Amino acid sequence: MTDDAEHAAPAQGADEQTIRAALRRCQRVVIKIGSKSLSGDAWDRLAAEVSALRSGRQGTGRRAASAGRGVVLVTSGAIALGVTKLGFKSRPKDMARLQAAAAAGQSVLMQRYEEAFGKVGLVVAQVLLTHADLADRTRTNNAREALEALLEAGAVPIINENDAVAVEEIRFGDNDQLSAMVAPLVGADLLLLLSDVEGLLDDGGQRVSFVRSVAREARHLAGKSTSGVGTGGMASKVEAARRATLAGAHVVIAAAKAPQIVTRVLAGEEEGTLFGAVPQRISARKHWIAYTLRPRGALLVDRGAADAITASNRSILAVGVLGVRGTFLPGDAIAILNPDGTEIARGLARFSASDAARIARKKRPDIEDDIVVHRDDLVVLPAE
Question: Which BP terms from GO are recorded (predicted)?
């Protein structure tokens, strides 16, 4: 699988039925399940459904879906299990005790996956990541190749944040965001976010079946987690959906405890809240620049430069730079702001912050020395 591989997606403006029908053809699926959904027989039910996907036995009375799907799981649960194992009365708030709970609970979590998936003849493989792993391009490519090798070997990768060593600077934030980063990493057609609710709810408490625009239709409906078990609320899931759809994956938020939920979603049935993939996905590398790397600073550009960036994806020249914010080095990710201070793009700096400030507003004879951010390293963010 190449870094810039393209995925087929429904045409712009495709309706919900067309996109749900496309779910039956998805061949690479990332399933994220949260802490609150992992209780009772959750592991056995999930194993049975993944087994059906892997063997092509999927179907609920309608036409069976395509065989041989590759499945990657992004799981929470280590800290919650560790809290119980260590006898803590509640989820700790300090980093050291959180890390202790993660270390104690991760082995229990994997043991439960091993036992459940072993019953249906599937091999699981633990993959622990930190944000620092995916922020480094070489390590990202290594992770991609390792995951691809596991899938080719018929294993089911079980991915979790390496909470036992992660500190605030290298955390993903929550596993919803991790799953959105994993989706382009493995070339996923579908990201299925399994939660303790049936999907995104409207102001009347009714499930929203289909979201065409996150900014216009979904963000105001998303709240924050109040469970005290997990860290990601609906706002996090909606943001993960936005990022994954830009990478070419359809996204469904659905209830983990609903009977045969994975099977029903992959059969195209009206379950959960569906977010359709954008017709023209951005490459894995540009998705990495925009949505994995964290900006170290920012460039403020003039109106002409802002228009050239958004309309034509032009490189940023020194003459168009009004000012610099923060401290960054060559190769660091930076935000690109228009004169109003609105972020319009992200890119990789070719100069340090001090050098960029020194040459700002200057027109230089050597065009190569004039490029502060090259267009190949620049990602225009969707307009809100």
Answer: L-proline biosynthetic process
